[in-house]
Predict the structure.
Amino acid sequence: MDIPTVNILGIPIHQMTRTELFSLLQERKEADQSTWVVTVNAELVMRAREKQQVADALQQADLLLADGSGIVWAARALGSYLPERLPGIEVAEGLVKWAAVAGLTMYFLGAQPGVAEEAIAKLRLKYPELEVVGHHHGYFQEAEAAGIIAEICSRRPDILLVALGAPRQELWLARHFADLGTCLAVGVGGSLDVWSGRVKRAPAWMGDRGLEWLYRLVTQPQRAGRMLALPRFVYQVMRAKMIGR
Ligand code: UDP
């Protein structure tokens, strides 16, 4: 794809605004081109540095977007520029709106059993025209994947949201995207939990100040271990800046 990228510790993030993203997705849909989108945060960059399989998965995606303020900050610190953050949930919300308006169909894969149903019910209050042609929870064994893929293919969704958490959703799509016959797939982390009402997003003022991580740390302390990736990310970015890489 002919879009400039910014190298964040070895991961090429596409330099795009929200408006550019949605017009590109529309163009690709009209041209019947498949698109796999990953929204990349600092944690995922660190996972890719630690695990080659994750780095390889990201290489296969069509679009890598700046999920969080950490990535936008890193671009600036490294003397480059990313126009805005495009959090997975906001991309997902944009896709729901687009689907409802344009009559595109969606499939939701992921989250605990029961969550997708609750999320769909809540989304339909806002978007009564939304057509979700199927859903499946995200607690399945890899041996069950073939059956789930067959089901997704039979429903022929225009848009597939994969909410298995990072990096599981990226590893899963790296393995199966080509078999899904879907036009557009996006890894959306905990979006279904938020839509269902089971998890709250950080208030906008915290998100705007790059403090979404702090809100998640306080409200989901079980994430503390994972979040140790954040200071290590900052250290690696500062190191890259100092040694000019
Ligand atoms: N999840 C899942 N299958 C798994 C592990 C996680 O469906 O094997 C779901 C989990 O229920 C939650 C989402 O993936 O809905 C992960 O949410 P989180 O906010 O942790 O997303 P991340 O920050 O990892 O993108």
